[in-house]
Design a protein that fits this description.
Number of helices: 3
Strand content: 25-35%
Number of domains: 1
Shape: elongated
Helix content: 25-40%
Structural class: alpha+beta
Radius of gyration: 18 Å
Oligomer: single chain
């Protein structure tokens, strides 16, 4: 399953703290069950998001939990869609309603 994991650093969090936490999570094996499909920072820093694929949502929770003292997380499950297919379906629905 895909998840959008948006983060915002808490006031006072430093890049060094975040770097140390990332290394600690990797060394503890917390990241291993995750496939990071995308990793983005927002302009200005201190916020961004990951697109993560993982079979067990509890593994995602375990991976993110240690960083919660440094940042807040907004995690949402994603459903992959086909835009063209959805557009064609909308056209059929609108056409049937007229």
């Amino acid at each position: 399953m895909l998840y959008s994991c948006a983060y915002t650093w808490h006031h006072g969090t430093t890049p060094e703290q975040v770097s140390r936490q990332i290394l600690a999570a990797h060394e503890a094996g917390l990241i291993d069950p995750l496939t990071i499909r995308g990793y983005y920072s927002l302009v200005g820093g201190g916020a961004g998001f990951l697109v993560v694929e993982v079979e067990d949502p509890a593994a995602l929770n375990r991976a993110l939990a240690p960083s919660m003292s440094l940042m807040s997380w907004d995690v949402r499950a994603l459903i992959e869609r086909d835009y063209q297919q959805d557009l064609d379906e909308i056209r059929r629905e609108v056409g049937q309603g007229t």
